[in-house]
Amino acid sequence: MLGHVKHSRQTFPKPRCCFVGFLFLLGVCLLYLPDPLTLEPLVSEENSGATLLIWTHPFGRYRKLPDCFALYQIGGCTLTDDGRAYPQADAVIIHHREVASGTADLPQEPRPRAQKWIWMNYESPAHTPRLWRFEDVFNLTMTYRTDSDIFLPYGYLRPREHRTNGLQNRFAHPLRAPSRLHLLRPRLLAWVISNWSESHARVALYYQLRRYIQVDVFGRAGRPLPEDSGGSVVRLVGRYQFYLALENSQHTDYITEKLWNAVRAGAIPVVLGPSRQNYERFLPPEAFIHVDDFPTVRGLARYLLMLRRNPARLRQHLDWRGSYSVHQPTFWAEHYCTACRAVRRNRGRTDVVEDLTRWFHS
Ligand SMILES: *[C@@H]1O[C@H](CO)[C@@H](O)[C@H](O)[C@H]1NC(C)=O
Ligand SMILES: *[C@@H]1O[C@H](CO)[C@@H](O)[C@H](O)[C@H]1NC(C)=O
Q1: Closest listed residue to residue 171, CA positions, set 348, 12, 337
Q2: Where in this chain does the record put each Fucosyltransferase C-terminal domain (predicted)?
Q3: Which of 92, 93, 94, 139 to mutate to test the pocket of ligand 2 (most atoms within 8 A of CB)?
């Protein structure tokens, strides 16, 4: 019988990813990242399966629930979106947006004993309203933050020599060391932006940057994605040497698909988001150019233009690619399956998320 451990964020801070790891090797760090596909098989006790209730489909968009075993070799998971399963569910995944906006209520209390309520959210704190309503409600957090109870980021790298199996390869995009053509991409700098807001730091940056360097803007605020890119951001960005991966707001670990699409496409990301140190938990230091690396926007523009004239220098930002694959988890299939695996592992514990607002804004 497992003891009941009540853990609070204040008294038992968890080891933070990579503070130590990066001093040695990226590979060490990545051991802290979730590894949905190469996990050691769970001891398949007959009765250790878990039923996970998906309380709402995120943003009200229905998606067929995945088969976790077929996709990720995570067994023992029953996923359901049928509220009638509530009394039997081992855990309920509750996506923030719907309960915060009132389009859905929280499940009825009292909750079945041992049932976990999982708070799932992939928006930044700036776009996560009414958090204060949910203090002492949830048992586990699931977000892009490395210190979440269930951590699954928007993307992550894996060293290529990492032992892989067929399944993992299905979801990993191997990166390539730069070829000669890669160093001579004809187009310079792209930005795809869907939510244009004059109040965003990224828009202010753009206004300054375009005084010094050509920026091709796509998305709602600029030109539509060109036909021949098939609407694919990765294909479009693959023609450019640099890509502006500018987050809508700047918060701990809030590094979204904007960065990972650029990495996949082989464009060097120019990032605006959390600090350089924070990005370095996820990527080698030379894999990106941080706007904070330069005292002025003009300095940043000059650096990009200088790199373009110096393939040898450019290469220094790209050579790391030969040893990595990038993985972009599939919303929301992989999230559900990862959560299910965590629930199976956390069985028998009592967890309470006490300082949700303070923690998420920290
Ligand atoms: C767009 O940005 C504005 C300003 O920050 C924000 O209020 C709004 O929620 C954003 N919309 C989306 C769809 O992210
Ligand atoms: C879940 O959280 C609730 C509310 O804080 C708490 O009363 C309950 O004991 C927790 N249950 C588990 C299984 O962690």
Answers
A1: 337
A2: 186-359
A3: 139
> How would residue 283 be classed by pLDDT, with cut points 50, 70 and 90?
very high
The whole-number average pLDDT for the span 276-287 is 96
Residue partners of 332: CB distance under 8 A and separation at least 6? 58, 63
The total of structural domains in the chain comes to 2
User: What CATH number is attached to the domain comprising 287?
Assistant: 3.40.50.11660
| Distance in angstroms (rounded) separating the CA atoms of residues 134 and 348 | 23
Closest CA to 30 of 146, 124, 171: 146
Domain that residue 40 falls in: 18-153+329-361
pTM: 0.87
Is residue 311 domain-shared with residue 354, that is, in the same domain? no
- Report the distance separating Cα 206 and Cα 79, nearest Å: 44
The shares of helix, strand and coil residues in the chain, as percent rounded to the nearest 5, are: 35, 20, 45
5 lines ligand 2 (CB under 6 A): no
